Amino acid sequence: MRVLIVQPSMNIYGGAELVIVKLAQYLAEAGIEHALLTTNILPEIEKDLFNTPIFKSPYKRSKNWQIDLLKDMWLLNIGVRRRAKKYDVINIHSIPAEFSIFPISKPVVWMCHEPPEVYLSSVSSRHSGPGIFAQKVFHAADRHIVKRYIKHAVVPDKYNAGRFRETYAITPHVIRYGIDYNFFSAAPDDFYIKRGGDFIVLHVGTLTEFKNQKESLRCVKMLIKDIPGIRLVLAGHGEGAYVKELKSFVQEEGLQDNVLLTGHVNRNRLRVFYHRADVLLHPIREQGGWMTPFEALATGTPVIVSKDMTSSDIISNEGIGIVTDDYVVALTDLYQNLKKHREIAVAGRLFIRNNLRWDNFSAGMVRVFQTVS
Q1: What architecture (CATH level 2) is domain 181-355?
Q2: C-alpha angle 354/302/352, rounded to 5°?
Q3: 358 and which of 75, 100, 178, 234 could share a cystine (Cβ 3.0–4.6 Å)?
Q4: What is the DSSP string of 246-292?
Q5: Cα(347)–Cα(297) distance, integer angstroms
Q6: Cα distance between residue 284 and residue 212, in whole Å
Q7: 356: which residues sit within 8 A by CB, 6+ positions away?
Q8: Burial class of residue 222, CB neighbours in 10 A (0-12, 13-18, 19+)
């Protein structure tokens, strides 16, 4: 079996990119012939794919995300048409990879991290969005291609399965992502004991409206009198109007001593932040952020997540964190009963160690590949 993995520009090392890295590493170790087709790729990601052949069609990124989306569509389609004959399965990932398979008659498995309409909503919220007509054309073309060329898809949870089924009338396989338990659970070398009285709230994710950093800032503003030592760390890259709004809020509310915006952090620094935090606050909307609370739990840090987070049912059903939309109440309870919530987080660590393994995810993907090839 030979697998061609297709992913648009890999300019950040986010969740979707990590999924591809872990899958490719598994395929290499299992002796399964495979390759990655992409456009741009970070050296950091390429380094982790040292056993995977990579076909690149790089382009200079513009300030217009719609233009870059079209470039990805065009270049990936050319790349697949040139190489499809050599492979038994085409494994597409993030939008607009689905447009790369037209008009190839090869088995396709779509690892759908999030539906196109969710992605488009997230990017248009931080840039000038495409017109209503352009969005309608895109969605119509997307549904036509999926209906014509895709019979098998994979999503990471039941929520996304329902969303995918409603959009495309296809019942996808559900295969949970993995978590690097050994990496995150190990205390980092530069771990330190925080100042007495500090209560560190960590919010991880790209600075966008979908990641909802405004809500975390609002919580700090409301709790600063009751929890004088509260410190909010916003860990993630951001740019544009939304980031300006966040910084303006911090200035206007006088929260400069209580809020830190770190910018992009690599995985090593992220592990440090997880271990230093008293709680991960994850008031995310229905886009991305699947792995973040589980990574935090792997370090033994309690988590508070929104009801909208697509994997919140796992946290709720397993009783390993707080699922709520009232974050102020949840933070207050956690602050007052920190020992209890740390014990809950320990149970979360055990759940992750025993259940959310990357080899389980990758083996499940291989079974799907074997089914369709």
Answers
A1: 3-Layer(aba) Sandwich (3.40)
A2: 10
A3: 178
A4: HHHHHHHTT-TTTEEEEE---HHHHHHHHHH-SEEEE---SSS-SSH
A5: 9
A6: 6
A7: 176, 177, 178, 179, 181, 294
A8: middle
Structure tokens at 166: 């409603």
The 8-class DSSP code of residue 91 comes to E
How many residues are given for the chain?
373
* Token pair listed for 125: 């919220």
Give the pLDDT confidence of 24-56 residue by residue, as tens digits: 999 999 999 999 999 999 999 999 999 999 999
Q: Are 352 and 181 in contact (CB under 8 A)?
A: yes
Fold entry, domain 2-178+358-372:
Rossmann fold (3.40.50)
- The ranges assigned to domains in the chain are 2-178+358-372, 181-355
Q: What is the DSSP letter of 90?
A: E
Q: What secondary structure letter does DSSP report for 84?
A: G
C-alpha to C-alpha distance for 188 and 348, rounded to whole angstroms: 20
d(CA 255, CA 172): 45
